[in-house]
Write a structure and sequence with these properties.
By secondary structure, the chain is mainly beta. It has helices spanning about 1-10, 10-25; strands at about 50, 60-65, 75-80, 85-90, 100-105, 110-120, 125-130, 130-135, 140-145, 150-160, 170-180.
Length: about 190
Amino acid sequence: NSTIAFLNDRESFGRRRVAELAAEGKLRNLAHNATCDGIGGKLPDPFGCWQPGKKENHKGVFGSDQTHGDGDSTSLCAEGVPSGCFTTTVKNIAPGGLYLVKCSAYGEGTSATVAWKDAKRKWTGRSEYMPFREANGEWRRGSVVVRAPAEARDLHLHLGVSLAPGEKCRFDSIEIYHLDPIEDKPEDSRRQ
């Protein structure tokens, strides 16, 4: 059954399920502005950014690059940020649902994590690291299949950076897919 396939090999399960949904015409990328299109180097909607500590102590720049993307000419771009992340959110996800999250990274000092908030906008305490394994030319692809906690309401993707002054990194081609329904999952346990 699908649950056993998911538990045995999440990545293969995710690829298979995406192919099934695409064949059925039901595949929909939940990431807003997945190609990271920005204007004039500014941080594009709907992305945010975060750095630890007080704002007056923040260093570096979060923005966009209109000259270098993964398959196009735009991407998120951070320069000289010693510690922080780009953020984006998918609201009103299905609690307990399965999601495939993918993106591309360019440059050193990059990481990606999926985290969750509940209906009261509190972190659930669960997060999952996304490894960057596959190479796509200069870009590295990362993906992870995650199950939302039962109390989750929103999925948060954190694209982490750890850069020295003058160093740059980029993120692009963000994909977030809801992989449910799973055949053996009771209908009433999913929120539509």
